Amino acid sequence: QVQLVEAGGGLVQPGGSLRLSCAASGNIFSRNFIGWYRQAPGKARELLAGISRGGSTNYADSVKGRFTISRDNAKNTMYLQMNSLKPEDTAVYYCNVKDGVYSYWGQGTQVTVSS
């Protein structure tokens, strides 16, 4: 059973930055799709950024140019660098790994952007 543990959320002012991390209990990032999602109150969970098995990245329009997804296979850790944060980025953020028919989720970390 794969476990994903997130860290790095918190309160930040508009225009600020945060880096989220997601550590896996095993080496699964390099061979699978990995992604970051978020869910704001009353809204559906949305995919923000992903890295395919081949290493290509993709981003939602709402975060393109501001957020960067990356992974460190040696550390079994993935990251989401978030810059130029806006109040509408406030949500619970989740990491996800799709390993065949299985889909693993982190516990979620709250990001609040407010002055």
Characterise the protein shown here.
There is one protein chain. With 115 residues, the chain is mainly β. It contains no helices and eleven strands. It has strands at residues 4-7, 10-12, 18-24, 33-39, 46-51, 57-59, 67-72, 77-82, 91-99, 102-105, 109-113. Strands 2, 4, 5, 6, 9, 10 and 11 form a seven-stranded mixed beta sheet that branches. Strands 1-3-8-7 form a four-stranded antiparallel beta sheet, with no helix packed on it. Strand 7 and strand 8 form a beta hairpin. The radius of gyration is 13 Å and the shape is globular. The mean pLDDT is 94.
SSE blueprint and pairings:
Elements: E1 4-7, E2 10-12, E3 18-24, E4 33-39, E5 46-51, E6 57-59, E7 67-72, E8 77-82, E9 91-99, E10 102-105, E11 109-113
Parallel strand pairs: 2-11
Antiparallel strand pairs: 1-3, 3-8, 4-5, 4-9, 5-6, 7-8, 9-10, 9-11
Number of helices: 0
Q: What structural class do helix, strand and pairing data support?
A: mainly beta
The N- to C-terminal Cα distance equals 40 Å
* Percentage of β-strand residues: over 45%
Helix content: under 10%
Give a quick account of the main beta sheet: strands, pairing sense, barrel closure.
Answer: 7 strands, mixed
Tally of DSSP β-strands: 11
Mean pLDDT: 94
- Coarse morphology: globular
Q: Give the uncertain stretches in residue-range form.
A: none
**Gyration radius from CA atoms, angstroms:** 13 Å
Order of helices and strands: EEEEEEEEEEE
Question: Keyphrases for this structure?
Answer:
115 residues; mainly beta; 4-stranded antiparallel beta sheet; 0% helix; globular
